[in-house]
What does this fold into?
Amino acid sequence: MDFKEEFNKKIAVVNEALEIFMPPPDAYPPLIHQAMRYSVLGGGKRLRPALLIASAEVAGGTARDVLPAACAVELIHTYSLIHDDLPAMDNDDYRRGKPTNHKVYGEAIALLAGDALLTLAFQLLTESRTGRAADIVRVIHEVAIGAGAGGLIGGQVVDTFSTEKEIDTTTLEYIHRNKTGALYRVAVRSGAILAGAGEEELARLTEYAEYLGLAFQIKDDILDIEGDEKKLGKPVGSDIRNKKATYPALFGLKVSKEKARSAVESAIGALSPFGKEADFLRVLVEYVIKRDF
Ligand code: GRG
It folds into this structure.
């Protein structure tokens, strides 16, 4: 398997589907549709939809079948980025290599664009082309929990109120398991559930997703110190400036890198019952910690 070729193929189908699923820019009222499209199209690594598709493929499904769900997860991720960049939160000027949504459209429209992306995601989930109705309902339920106050939002809340405070490892883990990990977990589980995975397969894939989320977050924290702003498409050093709780802040760079490596090994270990069909997932988690963007 040529990982790069496979990844690019997945990104291309996701981008093509997003273009179709997003309302056209001239749909009334155009301002909101343009703001939604601005943040979703033309940027982002598309890691979460690629993972959702790969997980469906491991369980015997196809990309085509799970495209609405893959796009739904990307829309939820993008909404969270738009809201995270707002002045009331991180107050960032650049995202995905261009000015943040509120810098272009203003805060009111940026808020509403995030809201509209979140709701569009749930609309798309009901349009899944595969899976029994019961599986689709299960996915909607899991996505709602992962994106909600017990997942993504919970992680963001604890993160926001931990700024400038001494925090312990348990709190740091809670933040990252939810703020970052919840959407990875949801992506992997949704793809597998829609493709009809059995409970044992699902448990292994879930374990993989949890370690992948951890590896991703530690790498994200490291890139905020060692990364190149041009490659990242956003400023570095914001964690230190904003006195954020991060792995390097708590453990130092060397131990953080060891922890990231160990999370990758554990993610790959979780895939041991699978054969070649899981090779993409194995290489993807390596890519997550080798990336420089
Ligand atoms: C506002 C509910 C709400 C949540 C915000 C997105 C987020 C939660 C915080 C952003 C800050 C941050 C570093 C989060 C953890 C990692 C993360 C989500 C990074 C961005 O994901 P990438 O690198 O982004 O996959 P692209 O742009 O490539 O899709």
